[in-house]
Amino acid sequence: MRNFNAVITGVGGYVPEKIVTNEEICKMVETTDEWITTRTGIKERRRLEGKHTGASVMGVKAVMDLLQKTGANPEEIDAVICCTSTPDYIFPATAVLIAEKCGITNAFGYDLSAACSGFIFALVNGVGLIESGRYKKVLVVATEKMTIITNYEDRSTCPLFGDGAAAVLLEPSTEDVGIMDFTMHSDASGFSHLQLKAGGSVNPSSHDTISRREHFVYQEGQFVFKLAVTKLVESCQEMMKRNNLTADQIAWVVPHQANMRIIDAIVRNLDVPIEKVMVNIPKYGNTSSASIPICLWEWEEKLKKGDILILAAFGAGFSWGGICLKWGYDPR
Q: Scanning 18, 196, 241, 327, which has its CA 20 to 30 A from the CA of 190?
């Protein structure tokens, strides 16, 4: 019988310096700042620039930020889990590239692909490693270079996505803090509504796939929107019900940052004031799996030990899930 929990003991993050405003998007496609803002809530997003720069570049910066703030010894890290839909290469794993650049020499690493739900799934993976008793320090890093798979000729999707990364450190604790509960789901019946059509073994890269622009995000917005609202709300409600929580007991709700209207729907359905919801989509857009940990990174100074947080995400797959946790430390 284990007598410890897996707890987040540190957060690091990074967003690229380059800001892409709605005005710049308007120069690429026929749209307006008002159209983008009213439908998505997004005003700007970040873009990683430079030749031969992949998602690992941002992942390294996020991990180094975490290591510096926590004082954790990189040689004591046991495992690195990287969630990303935009890996540097099909193989090797982006996790091992990040580890090598950060001096993490004694860990194994692997990538996890679950689109926008990736951080939820990866964090649960990390919890399992900690709770096994075999591992003491597990790093979960989410890094997404979404702009590389964004079609800047598609008016409906090109305003949505931005780049960024964040990482958390998981360790065992005998205190009453840490990951309390989680729920994860997937349903492939709707995969055709949100996908990257080419580049895999079913539809490998070719001149034809490139000319048809099939290496960019394809999304049927209305279908995805409706299901995202339903599943995100259900995930939050499931965590609240199973853990006997009321809205008053929750310090923060941390939803995936896909669309401001989706976040507004969560607020209405959960009866949680918007002041208790982490929202940064206006300045970063949708950073896929990195959006939730970027929120934790930005709000870290406001989080107090024992705060109850509900995390929830929905993404391609379809995949969705939620996590209920008690925050493990006071502001540093």
A: 241
Report pLDDT for 332. 81
Domains of the chain: 5-176 (3.40.47.10), 180-326 (3.40.47.10)
Strand order in the sheet with 79-83: 5-14, 163-173, 138-145, 79-83, 108-112
Catalytic residues: 116, 256, 286
DSSP string spanning 2-16? ---EEEEEEEEEE--
Ranges assigned E (strand) in the chain: 5-14, 18-21, 44-47, 79-83, 108-112, 138-145, 163-173, 178-186, 194-196, 217-219, 252-255, 308-315, 319-326
What is the per-residue pLDDT across 194-227, written as a single tens digit (0 to 9) for each? Answer: 999 999 999 999 999 999 999 999 999 999 999 9
What does DSSP assign to residue 222?
H
pLDDT tens sequence across 242-263: 999 999 999 999 999 999 999 9
